[in-house]
Amino acid sequence: MSYQLTALYNHPSDVAAFDKHYDDVHAVLAAKLPDVRSFSISRPQPGPDGTKPDYHLIAVLVWDSAEAAGASLGSEAGKEAVADLDNFAGAGVTMLTGPSTAVV
Amino acid sequence: MSYQLTALYNHPSDVAAFDKHYDDVHAVLAAKLPDVRSFSISRPQPGPDGTKPDYHLIAVLVWDSAEAAGASLGSEAGKEAVADLDNFAGAGVTMLTGPSTAVV
After folding, report:
1. How many domains does chain A have?
2. Interface ipTM
3. pTM of structure
């Protein structure tokens, strides 16, 4: 049983600034988190009818266990990544953590 | 550039019935989607202060491309999985689709 952090970012007021900071700074910091097994980023697109998706960006990080996730997020690299949220995620972010299973 | 479907399920009224149907029926159907590269399920836990997470279950499916995702969801197996939502997801589900990148 792995452990997953899902971060759902609300639509920012300045999309270009958000995307640049996320890609150039935040993703680089998050990639340094110790023992992360996978870290993926998705940018949802509008639906077929043009409706805006509920979130601007989804990040999914997976560790081998809840203990590994806790230690990783509590490390210096983890604290730095969390502190960086203040620099770009003012529109809000929903963080969800829990056990995860790979079906495929 | 891969393509990702993120399904965010709202908290069901009957958690046990939802979980049983998801694991025994829906996950089995979703795992049969053609050309899915990965499919993972996470059940978020309450926060450190006991607050209920915003969603009950998160499913993430990844294909090699938007075209592969479209063909997969439009296949017989895809139609069957989508139709099955009516059987257990009455509390609502948010579907988000878009390009995704594996950073780690």
Report:
1. 1
2. 0.96
3. 0.97
